[in-house]
Design goal:
The protein has about 325 residues and is α/β, with parallel strands linked by helices. Bound molecules: iron/sulfur cluster (SF4). InterPro entries: Radical_SAM_N2, rSAM, rSAM_sf.
């Protein structure tokens, strides 16, 4: 045990405000892992939104795991103390599901450290029935799941909001037969279980597709939230100990209509969708109670038809505005 590591986790938790994890007891337990440090993770809206979506359910609890800071990594290795959750200090193998939030390819390089500290066998076939299922979600997971196909048990192909309900309900109905559970999961929309597909090669040895090995869809369809107004994505947990700690972040749109060939955001989040000014105004007013600056998050903030009105509203309320990205050709005089 490392008193220093546990004290640091307690201090971090005490500095947070916002969503809290549900307590243990009778709930499906999900470990949400961000494969980078706390400082990076707590400014990631996808990570924070999944944390909120899971803990807003009565039948689920979700706790967070991070790549340890450099000095803490040394402490883990010196003491042999495993990776533990920020909230209750539990270890990864005490959870029913371990969900990795993969937003950046560079974070793949941290996965071996997390597996080592979490005492998880690397490949899926090395883990047995007692091991929690490992799921990868986030933009990297649905842009191309194959680099981690031997590692993860399943992938969320698409956005979390439409995928989570049937994933969680299927896990709640688990009878203990892992093989049967994986087939049932693969039958849900947007869930890809790599071990249930076989690669096909043509006569020249070129890869030509996948063949399902069970009664599951031949093709996994990407899922997306059709109406963003139904589900917010914002700084559900606020802490000063993160990159954008002085801001309240709010996603105003998802996807981009410009279709630049080099840009994944212009393709995998199609169709482009926006939150309405009315929805955002309410979120912003709440955010301004906690932070003086609002960070508007979108692939191209200036493409939102109400971008000027949103920014004006923040300024009129005495707040400051930051934007995640702008296109010069969409800037207006005002
Ligand atoms: S987000 Fe930017 S780079 Fe990507 S498609 Fe839109 S305008 Fe192009």
């Amino acid at each position: 045990m490392s008193r220093r590591l546990l004290d640091k986790a307690r201090r971090r938790l005490a500095a947070e405000s916002g969503v809290r994890a549900n307590p243990w007891g009778g709930r499906l337990a999900v470990a949400l892992v961000y494969p980078n440090t706390y400082h990076h993770a707590m400014s990631n809206l996808g990570f924070l939104t999944v944390y909120h979506l899971l803990n807003q359910r009565d039948d689920v609890l979700c706790e967070r795991f991070f790549l340890p800071d450099a000095e803490d990594l040394k402490e883990h290795r010196n003491t042999g103390y495993p990776l533990f959750s920020l909230e209750s200090g539990r270890f990864l193998d005490e959870f029913d599901l371990i969900a990795f939030s993969l937003s950046f390819e560079n974070d793949y390089l941290h996965l071996p450290t997390i597996f080592e500290l979490g005492r998880l066998p690397w490949r899926s076939h090395e883990r047995d029935e007692r091991s929690p299922l490992l799921l990868a979600g986030g933009i990297c997971a649905f842009l191309n799941p194959e680099p981690l196909a031997d590692v993860m048990d399943l992938f969320a192909v698409g956005e979390a909001e439409p995928i989570l309900p049937s994933l969680l309900e299927t896990l709640q109905e688990n009878t203990g037969d892992r093989a049967e559970l994986l087939v049932r999961l693969a039958q849900q929309p947007g869930l890809y279980v790599p071990t249930l597909y076989e690669a096909i090669y043509d006569q020249g040895g070129q890869f030509s597709g996948h063949r399902p090995l069970a009664d599951i869809p031949a093709r996994v369809e990407r899922q997306y939230l059709s109406d963003l107004n139904q589900s917010p994505s914002l700084s559900f947990v606020l802490t000063p100990e993160t990159e954008f700690g002085e801001m309240f972040l709010s996603e105003i749109s998802r996807g981009c209509s410009r279709g630049c060939r080099f840009c994944a955001a212009g393709y995998i989040y199609l169709p482009p969708r926006e939150r309405s000014f009315e929805t955002l105004r309410e979120q912003i007013d709440t955010g301004l109670c906690h932070r003086a600056r609002v960070g508007l998050v979108a692939a191209a903030v200036s493409d939102h038809p109400d971008a000027p009105a949103i920014q004006r509203h923040i300024l009129e309320r005495g707040g400051e505005v930051s934007v995640s990205s702008l296109r010069l050709d969409a800037l207006r005089q005002e």
